[in-house]
Design goal:
single chain
Length: about 45
Amino acid sequence: MTEVEYTEQALSHLESLDPQAADRILNKVDEATEWTEHRLEPLSGYP
């Protein structure tokens, strides 16, 4: 499983969304951490 870190900007955007939409996004990110080779790529230039 891959660890996902949320930036302050990402958290701010999530807070501004409808709670159900934010939950759906977070659930999809959680699902994607189980199949990282297919769904996630590391950010370039991010520590």
